[in-house]
Automatic annotation (TrEMBL):
Any one GO molecular-function label of the UniProt entry: DNA binding
A Pfam family annotated for this UniProt entry: HTH_3
Residue intervals of the HTH cro/C1-type domain: 9-66
Designated name of the protein: Helix-turn-helix protein
Length: 215
């Protein structure tokens, strides 16, 4: 079990607008107990696997995700076991875009979970990919970023543009010395930027991704 369970429980409480007291009553604990589970201070106590399983059942999420950050909220344990046994899968952490800078600086930012991936992607990391339209109400997209792959025209990349402190997803096409930049994967409109190699910091190429269903 990793300490990320605290962030996952807190996120579920906010998402469902549930109080510590309501959660405590649901799993047969006192309100103060939930507070001690979630604090990072000296009064912190650690929940048992059984208590975390009860919390997972209450929120209708998978216990392995809540306890360990493996898979996502709704990935069946059987699916992860199948991937690990039959495909020699590994897991990689998933981050929000705002945490990528810290990751690249060698820090240990909080992840939003982990996903099973084929073994050839073991050196990659996942980043939440912004999605729009009605699909975003039910699904989140995770892009797998390969920091060791050189990009070629029409690749979607995670990159930083001049003046932007945080990276974002872009499609790149280089013509001569100029790189034409489109936001995300929409190349139906005019490019939003034109830069040269020195003006764009390409962090990695998006080579594979997955979707996770929201609660």
């Amino acid at each position: 079990m990793n300490d990320g369970y605290q962030e996952r429980i807190s996120a579920l409480l906010r998402e469902k607008n549930i109080t510590n007291n309501e959660l405590a009553e649901a799993i047969g604990k006192g309100k103060a107990t939930i507070g001690r589970y979630l604090t990072k201070g000296p009064t912190r106590t650690y929940p048992s696997i059984e208590d975390l399983s009860l919390i997972a059942d209450y929120f209708n999420v998978q216990a392995h995700w809540l306890c360990f950050g493996v898979g996502d909220k709704h990935t069946d344990a059987e699916d992860i076991t199948y991937a690990a046994v039959n495909q020699s899968a590994t897991t990689v952490s998933v981050y929000n875009r705002t945490e990528v800078n810290a990751l690249l600086n060698g820090e240990s930012p909080s992840s939003v979970g982990a996903i099973p991936v084929p073994p050839e992607y073991h050196s990659c990391f996942g980043v939440m990919y912004p999605v729009t339209s009605s699909v975003s109400y039910k699904w989140d997209c995770i892009a797998l970023v390969n920091p060791h792959k050189e990009w070629v025209n029409d690749d979607i990349v995670l990159a930083r543009l001049p003046g932007n402190p945080y990276p974002d997803f872009f499609t790149l096409v280089k013509v001569g010395a100029i790189i034409h930049v489109w936001y995300g994967d929409d190349t139906t409109k005019n490019a939003i930027h034109q830069v040269n190699d020195q003006e764009i910091d390409v962090i990695g190429v998006v080579r594979w991704g997955t979707w996770k269903k929201r609660i």
